[in-house]
Amino acid sequence: MTPVSDFVxxxxxxxxxxxxxxxxxxxxxxxxxxxWKGVDLAAGGSGNPGASNALILMGWRAAVLxxxxxxxxxxxxxxxxxxxxxEVACARAxxxxxxxxxxxxxxxxxxxxxxxxxxxxxxxxxxxxxxxLCLYAVLIVVLIASNYVVVCTFTTITVxxxxxxxxxxVPEALLLCVAxxxxxxxxxxxxxxxxxxxxxxxxxxxxxxxxxRSRKQG
Length: 218
What we know:
By secondary structure, this protein is mainly alpha-helical. 72% of the residues lie in helices and 0% in strands. It is built from 11 helices and no strands. The chain has helices spanning 3-26, 29-37, 51-58, 60-84, 91-104, 117-127, 129-146, 149-166, 170-186, 188-196, 202-206. The longest helix has 25 residues, at 60-84. It is globular. The N and C termini lie far apart (66 Å). Residues 1-5 have low confidence and may be disordered.
């Protein structure tokens, strides 16, 4: 096989890798839980089907389950991409970014999904677990100090691409920048609420101040 044909075959694999990541990422535990509990995720909080709003509207247990689900699905997407396409450059990163976008824009909800933070953290763990664990420790401090998940989000989507670029993994950094740009757009309302002082903090959410009553409870 010639080098040209090798390149063509590798390039043609990227749509399959992206599809793999997207399908895994599109699975949304917040939506599943809300349907099971009879909770309308659009009824309060950010109105968003993601881990943060699961915390606000359904409590810590729901939020943890959503995060664990995101962690597993994104890591599995990255792992399978590396396993099935070992010779394709950046296959793992492509699958990872696609899984983040799948989380944010699932096809079965008219492309209205989560905001990608938990998925982004999961992909970071899959691509560089040592750095990810250090990042997680930093984020705990940031969360305690700021009281806002969105501040952790902005910290993550800024620091992670910079780290990958500075460590010589520029293609992966550029791919992650795609997810970063999409997440900045998704969080534009959070930015407005932070400016207005109306963003819901973790401490208020954990006290259940904004929790909604499920239709099953009613």
